[in-house]
Amino acid sequence: MSTLTVELPDGIAARLAAESEQRHVPPAQFVREALEKTLSELEAKRRFAQMAAEAEVDRLAGKHDPARVQAATREHRARQPYR
Questions:
Q1: DSSP secondary structure, 28-75, as one string
Q2: Per-residue pLDDT averaged across 26-51, rounded?
Q3: Coil, strand, or helix at residue 26?
Q4: In-domain check, residue 1
Q5: What global pTM score does this model have?
Q6: Which domain holds residue 33?
Q7: Is 21 a member of any domain?
Q8: Measured between alpha carbons, how far is 56 from 68 in angstroms, rounded to an integer?
Q9: What pLDDT is attached to residue 82?
Q10: How many structural domains are present in the chain?
Q11: Domain-located, residue 70
Q12: Does some domain include residue 3?
Protein backbone atom coordinates (compact mmCIF):
# COMPACT_ATOMS: atom_id res chain seq x y z
CA MET A 1 0.00 0.00 0.00
CA SER A 2 1.26 3.49 -0.82
CA THR A 3 1.27 6.45 1.52
CA LEU A 4 0.15 9.93 0.53
CA THR A 5 0.54 12.98 2.74
CA VAL A 6 -1.99 15.72 2.11
CA GLU A 7 -2.17 19.17 3.68
CA LEU A 8 -5.76 20.04 4.58
CA PRO A 9 -7.20 23.41 5.50
CA ASP A 10 -8.26 23.46 9.15
CA GLY A 11 -11.95 23.52 8.24
CA ILE A 12 -11.73 20.40 6.09
CA ALA A 13 -9.61 18.62 8.70
CA ALA A 14 -12.22 19.39 11.35
CA ARG A 15 -15.04 18.14 9.13
CA LEU A 16 -13.08 14.98 8.35
CA ALA A 17 -12.45 14.33 12.04
CA ALA A 18 -16.12 14.88 12.89
CA GLU A 19 -17.40 12.64 10.09
CA SER A 20 -14.88 9.90 10.87
CA GLU A 21 -15.89 9.97 14.52
CA GLN A 22 -19.59 9.88 13.63
CA ARG A 23 -19.03 6.84 11.40
CA HIS A 24 -16.66 5.19 13.88
CA VAL A 25 -13.92 4.76 11.28
CA PRO A 26 -10.37 6.11 11.20
CA PRO A 27 -9.92 9.25 9.07
CA ALA A 28 -7.60 7.36 6.68
CA GLN A 29 -10.31 4.76 6.01
CA PHE A 30 -12.91 7.46 5.42
CA VAL A 31 -10.61 9.25 2.96
CA ARG A 32 -9.78 6.00 1.11
CA GLU A 33 -13.48 5.18 0.73
CA ALA A 34 -14.32 8.73 -0.39
CA LEU A 35 -11.52 8.69 -2.95
CA GLU A 36 -12.57 5.28 -4.27
CA LYS A 37 -16.17 6.44 -4.66
CA THR A 38 -15.16 9.72 -6.35
CA LEU A 39 -12.68 8.07 -8.70
CA SER A 40 -15.23 5.39 -9.67
CA GLU A 41 -17.83 8.07 -10.43
CA LEU A 42 -15.36 10.08 -12.53
CA GLU A 43 -14.31 6.98 -14.47
CA ALA A 44 -17.95 6.03 -15.10
CA LYS A 45 -18.75 9.54 -16.36
CA ARG A 46 -15.72 9.43 -18.66
CA ARG A 47 -16.76 6.01 -20.03
CA PHE A 48 -20.31 7.20 -20.58
CA ALA A 49 -19.12 10.31 -22.41
CA GLN A 50 -16.87 8.17 -24.61
CA MET A 51 -19.73 5.79 -25.39
CA ALA A 52 -22.03 8.72 -26.21
CA ALA A 53 -19.42 10.22 -28.53
CA GLU A 54 -18.93 6.88 -30.30
CA ALA A 55 -22.69 6.48 -30.66
CA GLU A 56 -22.95 9.95 -32.17
CA VAL A 57 -20.21 9.12 -34.68
CA ASP A 58 -22.15 5.98 -35.65
CA ARG A 59 -25.39 7.96 -35.92
CA LEU A 60 -23.79 10.56 -38.17
CA ALA A 61 -22.29 7.77 -40.31
CA GLY A 62 -25.75 6.32 -40.89
CA LYS A 63 -25.18 3.30 -38.66
CA HIS A 64 -28.05 4.33 -36.39
CA ASP A 65 -30.98 1.91 -36.30
CA PRO A 66 -33.88 3.57 -34.45
CA ALA A 67 -35.67 0.25 -33.92
CA ARG A 68 -32.62 -1.24 -32.18
CA VAL A 69 -32.24 1.86 -30.03
CA GLN A 70 -35.89 1.66 -28.96
CA ALA A 71 -35.56 -2.05 -28.18
CA ALA A 72 -32.41 -1.46 -26.13
CA THR A 73 -34.14 1.37 -24.26
CA ARG A 74 -37.13 -0.84 -23.44
CA GLU A 75 -34.82 -3.63 -22.22
CA HIS A 76 -32.86 -1.19 -20.04
CA ARG A 77 -36.02 0.26 -18.50
CA ALA A 78 -37.35 -3.23 -17.80
CA ARG A 79 -34.15 -4.09 -15.90
CA GLN A 80 -33.89 -0.73 -14.11
CA PRO A 81 -37.22 1.08 -14.05
CA TYR A 82 -37.17 4.78 -13.32
CA ARG A 83 -38.65 5.74 -9.99
A1: HHHHHHHHHHHHHHHHHHHHHHHHHHHHHHHHHTT---HHHHHHHHHH
A2: 95
A3: coil
A4: no
A5: 0.65
A6: 10-79
A7: yes
A8: 15
A9: 72
A10: 1
A11: yes
A12: no
